[in-house]
Amino acid sequence: MTPRLRNPHILAPEGIKAMMALEASFESSSIEFSVKEFVKLRASQINGCAFCIHMHSTDLRKAGESEMRLYMLPAWRESTLYSERERAALGWTEALTRLSETGAPDADYAPVKASFGDAEQVQLTLMIGAINVWNRLQVGFRAPHPVERASVAA
Q1: Sign of the CA dihedral 54, 60, 63, 64?
Q2: N or C: which end of the chain has fewer CB within 10 A?
Q3: What are the Cα distances from residue 5, in Å, to 11, 51, 62, 138, 140?
């Protein structure tokens, strides 16, 4: 894979600054770290964003997340490893990431409404929108993910 632009982030500094400010706003959210990161990881999996999959799986592992929960994420609906809030957020993530296919159905919104307060619903939806923008930047411009030296030799 060949990157299409050398560094798209320096080519649109105001837009990136705005995205970074949006990301910073999530830090004060009452939404727990695991929900935030699993939302980012799941959207990145759906969008095929290797750069973001690498980043968010690494962040989750550094925070002590179990390898099994990382492995099972694509099959979260069939797994008992995720909390009610995580499941609600993951369903909403999939619905909004695949918006043209799903139309954000009530069946995916109902668990979000039951598990998250009104402000959290907005924050969660902004998080999902933001990761989809980041995925489009990285995939669209073919940003390579970091490569760990040990895995390259293997």
Answers
A1: negative
A2: C
A3: 9, 15, 30, 10, 10
